[in-house]
Design a protein that fits this description.
Helices cover 28% and strands 23% of the residues. It is of the alpha/beta class. Strand 4, helix 5 and strand 5 form a beta-alpha-beta unit. It is elongated and about 80 Å long. It starts with 5 loop residues before the first strand and ends with a strand. The structure holds pyridoxal-5'-phosphate (PLP). The site of pyridoxal-5'-phosphate has 12 residues, from helix 9.
């Protein structure tokens, strides 16, 4: 038997979530976001499964796109940060990579590139995120220059919302009004919505939606949401109990002796640690699920192991199956207990635990 730590990747759940994304935006094309190794899930298997649902994929950079293209993915692939060097434009054309242009310099690179074939170009407008994107004036100038000099390219106006997951919609509405004021002066396609906006702001879905997190089965909201709550988790991190022992009241467990038994206790040791993607800063008492029972983490997280207090669940023993996150404890809930977000836990998944693909 091999070490039991592994990540289950459930592709039928992925298809279920992709269906929900499609149904939530029936009039939009879907650009499925598979950056950062498909949020840690393994971008090739995810992209292959999503190809029948998606109209294009999105990744952060050309290296991520190159990998998918060379592995046989044939849909267009949008580079969300665009190219970092004008020499990459020629490759983008050859491989049908669409480019985000987030500053006037990238617009100039395209204007100067020899461009026989049409490229998909997404001009990014900064409507309030203040991270990437051009001002309204830069956008209008960029559109005009591109339309005059390189009419073969297909142009889309894009933006990104800062607070689409919040219950207060004021800022999102403001961002939209900046965006639509510019878009109404142009004849082009538009894209604004990530997962949270797709579900919370259907009126802003435009021509292309850009779902990421929801495809992987996580709700983008902290509050209950009728559709988000029907998404199914694609990744479950699982392992097993590999040792169990009794300790006396006053004994301590793990590095730094940070957990001390308040009573005679039983401790289970599980083969998973921060080297497998479990968060090292998980506090004492963080939930994990052993054989269907929620039990508290006891002691600090090691590289290869964690320890849990199983005193209250009499029958648990070596070999019991453990879910660190997934279907019985959502990654969103674990992330909340650890002071982070599902995005971080998923994208930080190292390659060490083998991925077992099901469904
Ligand atoms: C990552 C990303 C998305 C996907 O966001 P989710 O919240 O995961 O749906 C969409 N658009 C852009 C520009 C992104 O960087």
């Amino acid at each position: 038997m091999s070490r039991p730590a592994h990540a289950v990747i459930n592709l039928s759940h992925l298809r279920h979530n992709a269906e929900i994304a499609r149904q939530s935006a029936p009039n939009s094309q879907m650009v499925a976001v598979v950056k950062a190794n498909a949020y840690g899930h393994g971008s090739l298997a995810i992209a292959q499964t999503l190809e029948p649902f998606a109209d294009a994929f999105a990744v952060a950079c050309i290296e991520e796109a190159r990998y998918l293209r060379s592995a046989g993915i044939s849909l267009p692939i949008l580079l969300l940060e665009g190219v970092f060097d004008p020499s990459e434009i020629e490759e983008a054309q050859r491989h049908n990579f669409w480019l985000m242009l987030h500053n006037p310099e990238q617009v100039n690179w395209v204007l100067q590139a020899p461009a026989a074939n049409g490229l998909g170009l997404w001009l990014k407008m900064d409507t309030g995120m203040h991270r990437l994107g051009m001002t309204a004036a830069e956008i209008l100038r960029g559109f005009q220059q591109l339309a005059e000099k390189t009419p073969q390219h297909k142009l889309t106006l894009a933006t990104h919302f800062s607070t689409a997951d919040r219950q207060d919609h004021t800022y999102t509405h403001q961002q939209w009004s900046h965006f639509s004021a510019v878009k109404s002066q142009l004849s082009c396609l538009g894209s604004a919505a990530n997962s949270a906006a797709i579900l919370a702001h259907p009126q802003y879905q435009c021509d292309f939606i850009r779902p990421g997190l929801m495809l992987y089965g996580c709700s983008p909201f902290e509050h209950a949401h009728p559709i988000a709550d029907t998404l199914k988790p694609v990744m479950s991190l699982r392992s097993a109990v590999i040792a169990a022992r009794d300790v006396r009241a006053g004994d301590s467990v793990g590095y730094g002796c940070s957990w001390q038994a308040q009573r005679d206790s039983r401790i289970a040791t599980i083969a998973v640690g921060y080297g497998d993607g479990y968060p090292r800063h998980a506090p004492q008492g963080t939930d994990l699920v052993i054989d269907g029972h929620r039990v508290p983490l006891a002691g600090t997280v090691s590289m290869d192991m964690i320890t849990a207090d199983i005193t209250d669940i009499a029958h648990l023993d070596v070999g019991a199956p453990v879910e660190l996150w997934g279907e019985q404890l959502s990654v969103t809930e674990l992330a909340r207990q650890c002071g982070t977000i599902s995005y971080e836990l998923l994208t930080r998944m190292p390659s060490r635990p083998p991925r077992k693909i099901v469904g």
